[in-house]
What we know:
Helix content is 47%, strand content 0%.
Amino acid sequence: MPVTLSKLCAALNRPYGVIQDIQKRFELPVFKGAAYSDAYAAFLHKIILLRLLSISFDSLTHLWQLEKTIMRLLHADSTGSPTWFLDSCGSKRRRSHRLLLSNYDLGSHIASGSVQLGLDFASATPELFTSAEMGEDVLKALTLYLKDYRAIALSLRAELPNLRAALNFSRPFQVL
């Protein structure tokens, strides 16, 4: 059920300025009124969690650009939705087939480096040259994505002992 930005900020326990910064960095659409979907909220929550785990904005925005390139080359942008790049966020099915930030399902296991091609759902005006002829190739973008994804996964794994220590440290504290 769509919510307002103020309710989204409250649900994510972050001030408006933090959410606005994420919207700007990731070039997310800004809406008026109760127009923020659960998928939009799931994306913001994922960014907040990754930042808590010491993943830099630079790493995340670079990965985000690669994900959008992959989705665009696979014609995921053909739905007409202003949030087409976020609409899969929140889905929990087939996690190993999904991109990290957008949660877009590639149709096969990500680590295999393959994708399910030919899923163009819209009849768009044909381009003079194909994406591959202009230097864009989904498999090339996926290779770059996997390199960045692995670096983030290694950083997350390295941060786990600190996270466990912080959780153990916080246990005895009570709100007075």
